[in-house]
Amino acid sequence: MAIFAITRGQWSMIDAILHILNEVGPSKVSVWTWTVAEYEIRVLERLRLDERITSGRLVVDYGALGKNAGLIRKWKETFGEDSVRYVVSHAKIATIESESGFKLLARGSMNLNFNPRFEQFDLTEGGPDFDLVKRIEDELPILPDDCTWGECFHASKCGDAFDEETLKLFTGVKSWEK
What we know:
Elements: E1 2-7, H1 13-24, E2 27-33, H2 38-49, E3 53-61, H3 64-67, H4 69-79, E4 84-87, E5 93-98, E6 103-108, E7 119-125, H5 128-139, H6 149-156, H7 164-167
Parallel strand pairs: 2-3, 3-4
Antiparallel strand pairs: 1-7, 2-5, 5-6, 6-7
Helix pairs in contact: 2-4
């Protein structure tokens, strides 16, 4: 399953996550973003309390440490000390692994928050794109809150190229199979 959408800002990544959870039920959720705001953290905390999110991971840009330290602390209080990965990133991605077996990958130009501008959004279920994001997430080390930008850059491996196996995802014409 794959969906592509263009919005005029009617919804944000947090809205997409809420809709997906309504459809697939309780899930593990990871969120990749360059910054966080109080509203989005409160929504995700509430989803955890309601047991709609069974575990959460935040992959956030190093810059959020200075701007959003209190919100990141709230995230850790809700989802655990090891639930945050500091990186050098501008990605807007969410993974949703439902207890019912769905493995969904949401990505787009939109941030977590409301932003009334043209935005694009992709959602896929299963497949090598989901596996790639999860593999990268699992490789990211847990850095302390007082880490440096250099440590984040090194942990992000932004200076490293993808291996040959990963690059095979981008070769040849892909076809849809039934």
